[in-house]
Write a structure and sequence with these properties.
This is RyR/IP3R Homology associated domain-containing protein. InterPro entries: RIH_assoc-dom (IPR013662), Ryanodine_IP3_receptor (IPR015925). This protein is mainly α. Among the domains are: 63 residues, no CATH class; 80 residues, no CATH class. It is 72% helix and 0% strand. It starts with a helix and ends with a helix.
């Protein structure tokens, strides 16, 4: 009879593997070693191993290692948000059109000129960012045109020739400061797996001199990666793309695991946070996410499915209606019904394809349900 994964995890934990993970996270300054430490932690916790969960909790709580440990993870989250804000590139075709409309309005509306001075200055300040973003958009547009019409390749060749190496590098990798967030969030999710109430609460409050609320910080990260800090909730498709959608999904899954069980304190923490986290989650469900949805609807459906599960987790098994009322305040029932109808109709269309090609991923009907 072979040894199970759980047995191996417990054996490694008994030999000090979980303690090693904590020490690496707390002490290393090397990004590669830090990443490997997080991955080892994930391997020890995979499948919801309660013994290794308890071992992590015992060492962090009883051996007073938690303040430095949580500070490191908190700082990583803050660094990722800072990196996103400074490097995010979005599809600026619509922004460019809006700028031209605004410029025309400025030219034809003399009396309103003074009112719009501040926005004009803002646009000037954004000129460098827009130039960089438009370059990325140009490359993406050529790639799309090439898919639709292979003969267009010649027209785009000149534009892309000088940027070929840069483009391939961008497609393969994202900034290390942002990429590390996916394993960090997976690690935090697994700490809370199977409704581990002690660790769910511990992520929010460590009762140390300095407390690091990683529940709120995860919500802030979702807020940032979806672009809501720019005020563009209706423009999710400009920020969510094939390169970062897996990270957005992981963020939603981690937030869901923080709440399930339910953990009422974490539910309240997410629902009442000063960021517009609830708005983001609702927007992910209700809004089209294009252009991603035009060629990878499977990824969009998975995103909507995870966002729906998170909303349910925030409302799960409560004796009051506060969180449900907050959600309904931001979401008109008619909009939700329309999304369900669209998902159902897409499901009917997909059923024909499933008969031929099998069933992979999340179906539209699952999302509607």
């Amino acid at each position: 009879m072979g040894i199970s994964m759980s047995d191996i995890q417990c054996l490694l934990d008994k030999e000090g593997a979980s303690e090693l993970v904590i020490d690496v996270i707390v002490n290393t300054k090397n990004d590669r070693i830090f990443s490997e430490g997080i991955l080892l932690g994930i391997a020890l916790l995979e499948g919801g191993n309660t013994q290794t969960q308890y071992s992590f909790y015992q060492q962090l709580h009883e051996q007073k290692k938690s303040e430095k440990f949580f500070k490191v993870l908190y700082d990583r989250m803050k660094a990722a948000q800072k990196e996103i804000r400074s490097t995010v590139t979005v599809n600026t075709i619509d922004l460019g059109n809006k700028k031209r409309d605004d410029d025309n309005e400025l030219m034809t509306s003399g009396p309103r000129m003074r009112v719009r001075d501040s926005s004009l200055l803002l646009k000037e300040g954004m000129k460098g960012q827009l130039t960089e973003a438009s370059s990325a958009t140009s490359k993406a547009y050529c790639a799309y045109r090439r898919e639709m019409d292979p003969e267009i390749d010649i027209m785009c060749a000149g534009t892309e020739a000088g940027n070929a190496e840069e483009k391939s590098a961008e497609e393969v990798t994202m900034s290390p400061a942002i990429a590390i967030m996916q394993p960090i969030l997976r690690f935090l999710q697994l700490l809370c797996e199977n409704h581990n109430r002690e660790l769910q609460n511990f992520l929010r409050n460590q009762n140390n001199k300095t407390n690091y609320n990683l529940v709120c910080e995860t919500l802030q990260f979702l807020d940032c990666i979806c672009g809501s800090t720019t005020g563009g909730l209706g423009l999710l498709g400009l920020y969510i793309n094939e390169k970062n959608v897996v990270l957005v999904n992981q963020t939603l899954e981690s937030l869901t695991e923080y709440c399930q069980g339910p953990c009422h304190e974490n539910q309240t923490c997410i629902a009442t946070h000063e960021s517009n986290g609830i708005d983001i989650i609702i927007a992910l469900i209700l809004n089209d996410i294009n252009p991603l949805g035009k060629y990878r609807m499977d990824l969009v459906l998975q995103l909507k499915n995870n966002a729906s599960k998170l909303l349910l987790a925030i409302m799960e098994s409560r004796h009051d209606s506060e969180n449900a009322e907050r959600i309904l305040f931001n979401m008109r029932p008619r909009e939700l019904v329309d999304v369900m109808k669209n998902a159902y109709n897409q499901g009917l269309e997909c059923d024909h394809g499933e008969d031929e090609g099998g069933d992979d991923g999340v179906s539209p009907k699952d999302v509607g349900h």
